[in-house]
Amino acid sequence: MISIKTFVFNSFSENTYVVYDESKECVIIDAGNSNKNEDEELLAFLTEQELIPVKLINTHGHIDHILGLNFLKAKFNISICGHKADDEILESTKKYGEYFGIDISNPPKLDHSFEEHSVVSFGNTKFEVIHLPGHTPGGIGFYNKEQKILFSGDVLFNDSIGRSDLPGGDYDVLIHGIKTKLMILTDDVIVYPGHGDLTNIGKERRSNPFL
């Protein structure tokens, strides 16, 4: 049985997810912890639940989703995983950090790249990787069919979609991916987005103004 803990981190109010099961192994999705207090909050939860982080997995490479990667990689000696098409986005986080007053002197780099239909495994759990470009070239989602859970990153939100006006974005590609890869899922799939509240596929199919 999959359990999920949500943290809202950094000045961008980004959702960081700790995903775990009865094995006590866990993955951390979009580690956005950006300061000592947020680091300690995350570590306290891992300790309290006796969890063993085994992977850092990212839906995309924007600055608000990567701020905790280097800290957690060093802390637990685990790999950073995402899609290689976002390598350039990751490299640019130093420049964007300067713009926002955030020091990213050593942008994180991927240790492992996922492809479409790659499988993320930990403990007794598996997620399928869905490539969802349009917000960034290497945007991906993570889908568990058994428990009907989708981590959508900044592609699909509650009554909204991700921006496509940033470098590497493409509105038509974004909409195509949502309609052909996410809207084919069943209505009861719960969507855990990169920002904001949970939603589900049925609600977005019926009422999302962009779809």
What do these coordinates show?
It is built from six helices and 14 strands. The chain is α/β, with parallel strands linked by helices. It has a six-stranded mixed β-sheet, with helices on one face. A six-stranded mixed β-sheet has the order 7-8-9-10-13-14. The protein has a two-stranded antiparallel ribbon with strand order 11-12. The longest helix is centred in the first third of the chain and has 13 residues, at 36-48. It is globular and about 40 Å long.
Number of strands: 14
Q: What does the largest sheet look like?
A: 6 strands, mixed
Percent helix, as a range, is 25-40%
Describe the strand arrangement of the main beta sheet, using strand numbers. 1-2-3-4-5-6
Termini separation: 32 Å
Number of helices: 6
Content-based structural category: alpha/beta
Radius of gyration: 16 Å
> Could you spell the SSE succession in H and E letters?
EEEHEHEHHEEEEEEEHEEH
Extract low-pLDDT stretches. none
Q: State which percent range the strand residues make up.
A: 25-35%
Dominant shape = globular
Average pLDDT score: 96
Nutshell version of this structure?
The chain is an alpha/beta fold and about 210 residues long. It is built from six helices and 14 strands. Strand 9 (about 140-145) and strand 10 (about 150-155) form a beta hairpin.
Features of the shown structure:
single chain, alpha/beta, globular, 14 strands, 211 residues, 25% helix, 6-stranded mixed sheet, 29% strand
